[in-house]
Amino acid sequence: MTTSSDAALWVCDTAGSxxxxxxxxxxxxAYTIAVAxxxxxxxxxxxxxxxxxxxxxxxxxxxxxxxxxxxxxxxxQLFGDVMSLGRETGLKHFLLxxxxxxxDRLEARLRLRFPGVEIVGKYSPPFRELSADELxxxxxxxxxxxxxxxxxxxxxxxxxxxxxxxxxxxPIVAIAVGAAFDFYAGTKKEAxxxxxxxxxxxxxxxxxxxxxxxxxxxxxxxxxxFAAARPRRSIAVGAVAVRLPExx
Length: 248
Hints:
The chain has twelve helices and eight strands. With 248 residues, the chain is an alpha/beta fold. A six-stranded parallel beta sheet has the order 2-1-6-5-3-4, sandwiched between helices.
């Protein structure tokens, strides 16, 4: 069974190798599946992504019914593990998303928590659709930084579309990492470990931001349960296949 440690080791190994093309990595949970049920473009992005890890505990549970059961790979855990392990080989990181203030806090905290970590660039894009020229400028920032990994925190599904696009134009590992930026920057609190292990982390997050997250969890969880109840769910839930590289 794939574990978070396996996933982090694979990311570090892949990012530290000579890539001929980009690799886009996505983390799927119940909300991801719910969005993909009605958003065909998002579904296509995931189906054609290089790697999709089961970020949500319920999704990881469902894979036990398949031929290849998978362990949960939480975005925040993967983020921290790769930051830590990457120091051994000088892995270079670029942070893309959220706000300038959060990125500054995030970088400062990462340097304190992981002494020697190489953060070679960061950028907070405008909260709107970028023009072709703006995307070119953003790509040049990432390219010029010499980063091996670009972490993207723009919210679902925007961040998944963006890592897919970046991997299509740059030979880099691009990872849609979700709320990890806020957790590590200290702008939002993570759920207690026992809630994460029990698969009810969403309850904590919902209670923390009910006005913003009520639709995501109350409606989204119902859509996920409906998709999961389909007879042909196996390793594919709601038409989104959870895929791992063979070496993980």
